[in-house]
Amino acid sequence: GFTLIELFVVIAIIGVLASIVLASLNNARKKSRDARRVTDIKQIQLALELYFDGQSNKYPDASTSCVAGGAAYGLEDLATSNYIPQVPRDPLNTATCYKYAASGATPTTYHLGATIEDAANPALSGDKDFDSATAGYANGFAGTDPVYDVVP
Predict the structure, then answer these.
(1) 3-class DSSP state of 19
(2) N or C, which end of the chain has less CB nearby within 10 Å?
(3) What is the tens place of the pLDDT at every residue in 57-70?
(4) Angle CA(141)–CA(48)–CA(126) in degrees, nearest 5?
(5) Could you give the 3-state DSSP secondary structure of residue 54?
């Protein structure tokens, strides 16, 4: 048989190992969601370029509306025009839209972004860090880190 102290030691060791595994798993999940965000932004960017070519050299108008399962700051035009099957949403909270800002009444440029959970993500070193709010874009936002942002 085992003594009570031996059982407590084994249970304590198992508890420590379980907490280490859970901490590593949470970090892996965070990195996975960030990778998904970067991929989604690139997918939306490709759809925006297809839209631009097919719509007489203009991007969709930006809106201030982000509704769960509906409007996505104007990006829903990409799905209704069949340039993308559906507008991707943030993997952590599907009610959260990716940021989209467009220039002028007939948009000829845009600013697209997603907030990254891991501030040390290497994708943040290659993004634009553009501030469309001060540049006069409709629905503009600051693209400073931890926002992964792109422009055409």
Answers:
(1) helix
(2) N
(3) 999 999 999 998 78
(4) 55
(5) helix
Q: Does residue 138 contact residue 61 with C-beta atoms inside 8 Å?
A: yes
Nearest-angstrom CA–CA distance, 84 and 47: 6
Q: What is the DSSP letter of 98?
A: P
- Element holding 119 (H helix, E strand): none
Nearest CA among 150, 143, 91, 145 for reference residue 119: 145
Intra-chain end-to-end CA distance of the chain, in Å: 71
- What's the pTM value of the predicted model, to 2 decimals? 0.86
Q: Which residue has the tokens 């990254």?
A: 116
100, containing H or E segment: strand 99-102
pLDDT in tens, 26-68: 889 999 999 999 999 999 999 999 999 999 999 999 999 999 8
3 contacts: CB under 8 Å, gap ≥ 6: none
Q: What are the structure tokens assigned to 96, written together? A: 């959260």
